Amino acid sequence: MGPMMRVLVADDHPVVRAGLRAILARRCNVGTLGEAGTGAEVRLLVAQKPWDVVVLDTNLPDCAGLEMVKEIKRLHPNLPALILGVHPDEEFAVRALRAGAAGYISKRAAPEELAGAVQRLSQGRRYMSPAAAEELVRALGNGNGERAPHTRLSDREYQVLCLLGSGKSVGQIAEELARSVKTISTYRARILGKMEMQSTAQLVHYVLQQHLADPA
Question: Which of 37, 128, 155, 209 could disulfide-pair with 133, CB 3.0 to 4.6 Å?
């Protein structure tokens, strides 16, 4: 059956953490199951104990998931991170892998897919859904070709774009990301400039048209 895995689950919703732990305990050979609700707790637990896999939500209250992946990769190069999010697999998976994640899985995935992904990462392999793999090949193949406007954005700008597209206000986004309204307004201005658009309404329309986020 193999060695017992040590898995750390990080999500800001206790119910989600409980569900993830139940799935992994039932379907994987897990010996240690830890949980964290913030980026600070992830840092503390990763520093205190050895883990085989970290399952990270894309939006922790005090740290974006991709920023946490980069930090983990810098401090613990051999610790694989599986990003868990609501964004469409294809686009966000590419960003997650570029940030250093070993895999990306949607919160819509079936329990057996999550268990399989964690198992693969614990064995030193990566996990990508077929759709995400196809998007990665497309993204690499179009390195010199025409790129969609949202691919010009940084990871944080892309995150803000998706939140705007889901119908959230600048104030709501600032609260969710633990940033000031002024900072989020600056991100919004940069996004508009990079995407050559004039209004938030245009951004929302683009996000919905490209299926980058679900409407609230």
Answer: 128
The tens digit of pLDDT for each residue in 111-154 reads 999 999 999 999 999 998 776 677 666 666 655 445 678 888 88
Residues 22, 123, single domain; the answer is: yes
Range of the domain at 176: 151-210
Which of 22-36, 62-76, 81-95 is most confident?
A: 22-36
Sequence-ordered list of residues with C-beta below 8 angstroms from that of 52, at least 6 positions apart, any chain: 5, 6, 7, 79, 80, 121, 122
CA gap 193, 150 in Å, rounded = 11
Q: How far apart are CA 99 and CA 38, in angstroms?
A: 19
Between CA 169 and CA 82 the distance in angstroms is 29
> Are 116 and 36 within one domain?
yes
For 51, 55, 95, the CA distances from 111, given in Å and listed in that order, are 21, 14, 23
Domains contained in the chain, number: 2
